[in-house]
Structures are given as structure tokens and as C-alpha cells.
Design brief:
The protein contains 16 helices and 13 strands. By secondary structure, it is α/β, with parallel strands linked by helices. A 6-stranded parallel sheet has the order 4-3-8-7-5-6, sandwiched between helices. It has a 5-stranded mixed sheet with strand order 9-10-11-12-13, covered by helices on one side. Helix 1 crosses helix 5 and helix 11 runs antiparallel to helix 12. The longest helix has 27 residues. The radius of gyration is 24 Å and the shape is globular.
Length: about 400
């Protein structure tokens, strides 16, 4: 099971490009319907401004870093990602996988005719690739789209891999909206990958990509569209990253033992973490999640005695949340200290986790809510008829 690294609130899987393709094939073979996202800095900022999108990304089965700033941020937070993995690189690699294994690929989105041209390019470069369909629907808001027609076309083609080029956040929202109805093992948003594949947009040379400066060439090609976007994204990162670093440095090092213990009742599995929340505690946390899923229990993670959390440990917690959500369950946090709240806020993870209240506290809250704030001794018969309360 993949476990992400928490990078500024995004659950990014630390995989190479080849490992990402293997992970996608594993998702195909595992059954069910899975969403894959290729997240860049614009995804990150959009998710902070849209809690629904944030939770969509956190619920994806695989999220790779399609942007060097996110890779750089992961290094600064002490848990470096393996490498940048772009959607435009994954598309031909999945075509090659299709040619070898026979998986059907459907190309959805892009400008009129671009998906058809992309299909021809892939068939030329990867003989035997199974492109089972292409379609460029109306470019409008989600509410204006003919969703039934799109779903009918996909159902008729029966692909194993659906590549959606609507752009973020529309493509991620569309996949999430229809994930249960698609009946497709893997659906992935690919942004402008079709345009780059057919040559309508040029990629930077390989050495520029390795330096992490591909965005400069993209900005030079579309300055009016990408210039303001890149300025906004980098400004937001520069604004928030120092706070994230401060939260990381504010934690004291902890050299004592780290343990995970559990207790449960008929509905809740309580997981008590002690010491560090890092890779060291991940196996025990994973066992607790497996137990919860097998028994249909929601999980409450108690962090009162946790002294140190790193980006990898928070990633494991986000991965546990993802597994539970897939099973129709939930993960809540309890007993957070002030420092932990600051860490979750600074690392942009607070919107993903609900805070648990004990049944006793919930009962007390209901009692308070049901108690009148002020009692008035009023003679009802003295009130005007329209203000009298019957019964």
C-alpha cells in the first residue's frame, strides 16, 4: 500500500516515473475505481482556496508531484520526494504499458480534434496501443456539461485507463463526481498533456527539465495566461513556506521509544500514539487501520503524547485517512496540543482532519444547546393574539 509524504497539505507519493506506472497497473489489477492526480503548485494553491478540492486530492489513490517547487519544498521539510513525475511523461508511458499488456485507454477532453491527433501520435509511437475512444465535450462549467453523453461513451468503450484533459480543478472535480459511475479502474487528470503530445505546445529541453526550470519556457510561450498564474503560485509558496519551516524547527528532537496502542468499543477504534509519528510508527499504525477496516470501525488517533511529527509521519496519517475513506469509514484526531495544532495549520493539513469529541462531551454539548439562555416570566394571555404560543 502506498503511503504519501505530506508536502504543504498535499499527500504526494514518493515514486519515480517508472514506479508510478507500476502503481497505476497495480490499481488496475486491484479492482474498484481509482483516481490519480498529477499535482503542481497551482493544484496546491487551488486546494487551499477550495476545501472540497483539497479533500478530493487527499482521497486520490495516487498523487504525484508534477512540479519542481513541490519537490524542493519536500526537501526543505526534511522528507524529500523521489523525483518530479509529470502527467505529460506518464501519458506515453501508459501508452507503452497498453501496448504490452492490452489495457484500453480513453482520451477525454482537450480542444476539438486534439484528442484524435494525440491518439494518432500514440499509435504511431507505440504500435499495439489500445486507444478505445476519444471525445472532446463542450468547454463549459461542470453544471453545463452533458454528463450522461460522456458517461455513455466511456461505458461503451470500456477502458481500463481514462485520461481527462479538462484542466485543474475541473478535471479532478469531474472524476471525483463520477468516480462510482465511471466503471473505469483508473482515471487520471492530465491537463495540457494532449497539446504537448501533438506539438501544439513545446516542452523545454531535457536539461532544462532536470534543472526544474521548465516553467520558464512554458511561461515564455503563454505569458498572458501563465505569467499571472505563476506569480500568484510562487508568491503564495514564499508566503507560507517560512511558517511551515518554523513549525518543523519548533519541534524538539525525541530519542525515547515510540509506541502505538489500541482500544476499541463497538463503533470506534482508539489509536494512542506515543513518542514520534514517523516512518518508525507506520507499521503499527497500518495494522490498526487494517483492523478498523476489517471490523467496520471508525478510527480516532490520540496525539497527546506525540512529541515529534515529520512530513513522512503526517503522510502516513493522511494515507491511513485515505484507506479508511475508501472503506466508507473516517479518521479523526484527538488530544492535540497547541504545538500540534500550529504544525497542522502551518503544513496546510488542518482542513483534512476533523477533531473527535467523546460521547460524554457531545452529550454535554447537546445539553447546553438545549438549555434556554434566558427564561422570561410572561403572562401569555397579556400578549397580542399573533404573538401567543400555543401548547
Amino acid at each position: 500500500m502506498n503511503h504519501p509524504i505530506a508536502v504543504m497539505g498535499l499527500p504526494l507519493d514518493s515514486v519515480t516515473s517508472g514506479e508510478a506506472v507500476k502503481a497505476i497497473e497495480s490499481l488496475i489489477l486491484s479492482g474498484g475505481s481509482h483516481q490519480v492526480a498529477t499535482a503542481n503548485l497551482d493544484f496546491w494553491l487551488n486546494s487551499l482556496q477550495n476545501p472540497h478540492l483539497h479533500r478530493i486530492l487527499a482521497g486520490c489513490s495516487l498523487v504525484v508531484a508534477d512540479g519542481m517547487p513541490l519537490v524542493w519544498a519536500s526537501k526543505m521539510l526534511g522528507s524529500p520526494l523521489a523525483e518530479r513525475v509529470t502527467g505529460v511523461d506518464l501519458v506515453p508511458q501508459l501508452a507503452e504499458l497498453s501496448a504490452r499488456k492490452g489495457y484500453g485507454i480513453y482520451l477525454l477532453g482537450g480542444q476539438e480534434g486534439v484528442a484524435d491527433r494525440a491518439a494518432k501520435v500514440l499509435k504511431l509511437k507505440y504500435p499495439g496501443v489500445r486507444i478505445v475512444g476519444t471525445y472532446a465535450p463542450f468547454h463549459g462549467e461542470l453544471a453545463q456539461m452533458d454528463h450522461s453523453e460522456i458517461l455513455d461513451r466511456i461505458h461503451a468503450a470500456r477502458p481500463e485507463i481514462l485520461l481527462v484533459a479538462f484542466g485543474n480543478p475541473k478535471q479532478e472535480k469531474w472524476i471525483w463526481m463520477h468516480r462510482k459511475r465511471l466503471a473505469v479502474p483508473v482515471a487520471m487528470g492530465v491537463g495540457a498533456s494532449f497539446d504537448i503530445l501533438v506539438g501544439d505546445q513545446k516542452r523545454a529541453p531535457a536539461w532544462v527539465q532536470r534543472c526544474g526550470m521548465e516553467w520558464v519556457m512554458r511561461c515564455a510561450q503563454e505569458p498572458s495566461r501563465l505569467g499571472p498564474r505563476y506569480f500568484r503560485d510562487f508568491t503564495a509558496l514564499v508566503h507560507r513556506l517560512p511558517l511551515a519551516m518554523l513549525a518543523k524547527w519548533s519541534q524538539r528532537s525525541y530519542r525515547g521509544p515510540s509506541t502505538v496502542t489500541t482500544a476499541h468499543d463497538s463503533r470506534v477504534l482508539h489509536v494512542y500514539l506515543h513518542g514520534k509519528l514517523t516512518r518508525e510508527t507506520a507499521p503499527a499504525l497500518q495494522r490498526a487501520v487494517v483492523t478498523a477496516v476489517a471490523n467496520g470501525l471508525v478510527v480516532v488517533a490520540h496525539l497527546k503524547t506525540v512529541r515529534h511529527i515529520d512530513a513522512e509521519g503526517l503522510g502516513f496519517l493522511m494515507g491511513a485517512r485515505r484507506q479508511l475513506l475508501e472503506a466508507g469509514l473516517s479518521l479523526s484526531l484527538a488530544s492535540l496540543s497547541f504545538k500540534q495544532r500550529f504544525l497542522f495549520h502551518a503544513w496546510c493539513a488542518s482542513p483534512l482532519f476533523d477533531e473527535w469529541q467523546s460521547p460524554r462531551a457531545q452529550a454535554g454539548l447537546r445539553e447546553v444547546e438545549a438549555t434556554p439562555y434566558l427564561k422570561l416570566n410572561v403572562d401569555k394571555d397579556a400578549l397580542p393574539a399573533q404573538l401567543r404560543i400555543r401548547g
